[in-house]
Amino acid sequence: MNVAEPGSADVAVLLPGTGSDDTFVRSVFEAPFAAVCVRAVTPAPVPGPLLAEASFAALDEAAERHPVIAGGVSFGAHLAAEWALANPDRCAGLVLALPGWHGDPGDAPGAVSARVSADLVRSRGVEGALAVATDGVPRWLADELTRSWRGHGDGLAGSLSAAADRQAPTLAALSRLDVPTGIATCTDDPVHPTTVAEEWLKALPRATMCTTRLDIVGTDPEALGRAAVLAWLRAGGLT
Fold first, then answer.
1. What is the percentage of the chain residues whose pLDDT exceeds 90?
2. Same domain membership, residue 36 and residue 148
């Protein structure tokens, strides 16, 4: 497979997770990438059933002239890997935080959570769904959900369903991504099991992985970005 030369990009395009937004992705990745002189581009999600297609368009636009590093959080990581498979000559590396499944979503915790949330939004509206979804969760997570779900507005249910029903790259497909890849996982995250990240790690030919914890990310979102960027550097990024 012909791929871009590793380290040939100074731009990273980072995509948000299911129901999340560019504000959170920026808080995770902007400073860690700036520390290695890479500019983080965080396109805002286009809410609704065409969420994935809009994300691919943003990656296409960023990679028009030069290869880029692609990445994201959760569903955003899935989309980054999917785009890289379709555009090996335009992907200089991957930075993947919290992958939720590979292949068919099935009953993966992240997919189940997104389906339940979509149904809740359709039955109770965004505000009613937020009242349920934020009950008893840590304050930082409640704040993130409140901002991002309101930002998705009427397109929220469609966004959640688009993620829950979309296949992630299979392990066989991931094995074809021969670019430096950094994976980050939170060892205390039941929605994005570390076992899934470990399976991605084994499948990807040039990947390393670093870990952190959700309770750390709650007070320091950059911890997730630092873990992912460090793993990418160890995999050969910028060399």
1. 95
2. no
Q: For residues 36 and 97, state if they share a domain.
A: yes
* Environment class of 10 (CB within 10 Å of its CB; exposed 0-12, middle 13-18, buried 19+): middle
Q: Are residues 61 and 91 in the same domain?
A: yes
| 8 A C-beta contact, residue 181 and residue 204 | yes
CA distances from 61 to 41, 172, 218, 227, 228 (A): 11, 28, 32, 27, 24
Query: What does residue 224 show for φ and ψ, rounded to 5 degrees?
Result: -70, -45
Q: What is the DSSP code (8-state) at residue 142?
A: H
Q: pTM of this prediction?
A: 0.94
In which band, very low, low, confident or very high, does the pLDDT at 64 lie, cut at 50, 70 and 90?
very high
One-letter amino acid at 98 equals L
Residues 134 and 210 in one domain: no
Give 50's DSSP letter: T
